[in-house]
């Protein structure tokens, strides 16, 4: 892992525009001409390499972005989609059919959880949700019908760390693929290098980083991506969550600064997490020694990118959480908004927002309390000042006691 350099892989891509532009040209077309009818036929049969057909299949701009993401993750290729869910759901469906079974982490993105819990059973696909930090529990959940293991590297919103190497060993032993959603830890964790088979991202978050568009990607083998795009039975092709070329071009440009942004997100998040913890707040951040997954994360990570931009604190109850978020927004310390990876800090209370798909009882069982605030820490230039201002909000709301020595 230590010798895999994902940012170098992105940097080394050299794409020129049609007229020698420093950025690749954007393909502003939904359909493509063929010089001969025979080539068109061959393309439908999947036998005309390098020919563009129709942009739901793919476009030159989408291929550039896909190649960049495949390079970052170290897979043969990738397929981009209109959103993270537009990448995750067809990939799961490509692997599974009626009668099949999935083993999934129980602490995953609310949308993915709802898809596996409420939607795929309608298609005859059942999921067992497990505590992914317990490898024996994961293995015990595998049956003859299990087709995939699904998890997130850093789980949402509890920031549990999955042992990708351990999970990959179990998957290999049972001859099934390990699918990993790496949205929370791009560059920091390279799941393929740790033995995973397929990596997915919501590009909407850190990778694009400017909260102006949605996007998703599945990175995997050529065989998998070809099957997803197959005109006859490919789930990506047929379900139609295709990315637009203009968006692909803009996300590719933002990807060029991802390594700088990840470092700053991580630097700022670690700074705040250490301060909050020292102040006596219940703080969860993988970069803290108190985090149960800290050592595991250290073993897996590409060090220079740090422990990521996500942290949570527990302020005791939903009313306090709401008051604090409103006050911090009023003081321009961030926005009360879902999503993550923006240059500005974003905060929300997952119990009543992004994880509200998870029934209250299950939330309790997995340790998701209603006073939990999830922060996506922004790129603030002066994080010490941010901390002082956040601390002042907490003192005003009596979440923290005033301490004269700090002012
Ligand atoms: C946001 C998110 C998704 C879904 O992505 P969209 O782009 O919103 O469709 C999936 N997984 C994780 C971990 C996410 O944070």
Automatic annotation (TrEMBL):
Xref: SUPFAM superfamilies: PLP-dependent transferases
Keywords: Lyase, Pyridoxal phosphate
Organism phylogeny: Bacteria, Pseudomonadati, Bacteroidota, Flavobacteriia, Flavobacteriales
PANTHER family hit by this protein: CYSTATHIONINE GAMMA-LYASE (PTHR11808:SF80), TRANS-SULFURATION ENZYME FAMILY MEMBER (PTHR11808)
Residues bearing PTM N6-(pyridoxal phosphate)lysine: 205
Family under the similarity heading: Belongs to the trans-sulfuration enzymes family.
GO-annotated cellular components: cytoplasm
Protein name: Methionine-gamma-lyase
Pfam families per the UniProt record, alphabetical: Cys_Met_Meta_PP
Source species: Ulvibacter antarcticus
GO biological process, one term: transsulfuration
Keyword Lyase annotated: yes
Domain of life: Bacteria
InterPro entries, alphabetized: Cys/Met-Metab_PyrdxlP-dep_enz, PyrdxlP-dep_Trfase, PyrdxlP-dep_Trfase_major, PyrdxlP-dep_Trfase_small
GO molecular function terms attached to this record: carbon-sulfur lyase activity; pyridoxal phosphate binding
Cofactor: pyridoxal 5'-phosphate
